[in-house]
Amino acid sequence: MSDARRRDAAHSITLTDGTATRTRKAATADLAPVQELHHRCSLRSRALRYHVGKSGLSPAEWRQLSNPERGTTLVTTPTGRTDHIIAMTNLMRTDEQGVGELAILVEDAWQDRGLGTALAEHAAAVARREGHHTLAAAVAACNKPMLHVLEKLDATPVDTTGSVVDLRISL
Ligand SMILES: CC(C)(COP(=O)(O)OP(=O)(O)OC[C@H]1O[C@@H](n2cnc3c(N)ncnc32)[C@H](O)[C@@H]1OP(=O)(O)O)[C@@H](O)C(=O)NCCC(=O)NCCS
């Protein structure tokens, strides 16, 4: 898909403070702004997203995340700042047919304004369109904001191993 068509296909989300944002499918060329997003995030946010200490993504990791055969990665920008990525949503295929794995990273400065909730809802809609019947998420047990976001989508905990809760959402 061309950059122009990708922008046309963007999904609008208005944050609780009135800021307008656009969410679109990621492209391989988004690696640099995605890296900048990771660098602006706190160590804690990155650790909650990846369950390990991580400063950013390697080009190989980004090729996997942005490869449509592996799933769908969405990036969010403030409207009018198309190269300033403030959130990344990953909806990746799993070994289980019809089950997609959801993960979201919202830049610290943009958290608590309704973006994570809206992105989770949008990801569920995208997953349904793509033929998934279930969303899975592995969330740190201490990650109250993400657990709260998923509760709003009626997520059910299916397993708690150590400090990680595995949840499922029926679509
Ligand atoms: C988890 C994350 C995606 C949520 O994004 P966000 O934009 O802050 O989410 P929202 O603003 O839509 O919602 C956050 C909710 O958590 C609630 N919350 C915040 N801190 C909380 C706490 N300590 N305990 C309980 N709820 C809390 C907020 O009140 C809000 O709920 P509300 O809208 O019902 O009031 C974001 O914090 C993030 O990227 N964190 C780091 C990476 C991460 O944890 N990713 C998830 C990996 S699976």
Q: What's a concise summary of this model?
A:
This protein is an alpha+beta fold and 171 residues long. The chain has 6 helices and 8 strands; from the N terminus they run H-E-E-H-H-H-E-E-E-H-E-H-E-E.
Describe the 3D structure.
It is a single chain. This protein is 32% helix and 31% strand. With 171 residues, the protein is of the alpha+beta class. It has one domain (3-132): Gcn5-related N-acetyltransferase (GNAT) (Aminopeptidase, 3-Layer(aba) Sandwich). An 8-stranded mixed β-sheet has the order 1-2-3-4-5-6-8-7, with helices on both faces. The two termini are 27 Å apart. The mean pLDDT is 94. The structure holds coenzyme A (COA).
List the helices and strands and how they pair.
Blueprint: H1 3-8, E1 11-14, E2 20-25, H2 31-40, H3 43-50, H4 59-65, E3 71-78, E4 87-93, E5 99-106, H5 115-129, E6 134-140, H6 144-151, E7 156-161, E8 164-170
Parallel strand pairs: 5-6
Antiparallel strand pairs: 1-2, 2-3, 3-4, 4-5, 6-8, 7-8
Question: What is the CA–CA distance across the termini?
Answer: 27 Å
- Quick check: average pLDDT? 94
Q: Which value, in Å, is the CA radius of gyration?
A: 15 Å
CATH topology: Aminopeptidase
Number of alpha- plus pi-helical segments: 6
The low-pLDDT segments are: none
Using the alpha-carbon principal axes, give the shape. globular
Features:
171 residues; alpha+beta; Aminopeptidase; 8-stranded mixed sheet; 6 helices; 8 strands; 32% helix; 31% strand; binds coenzyme A
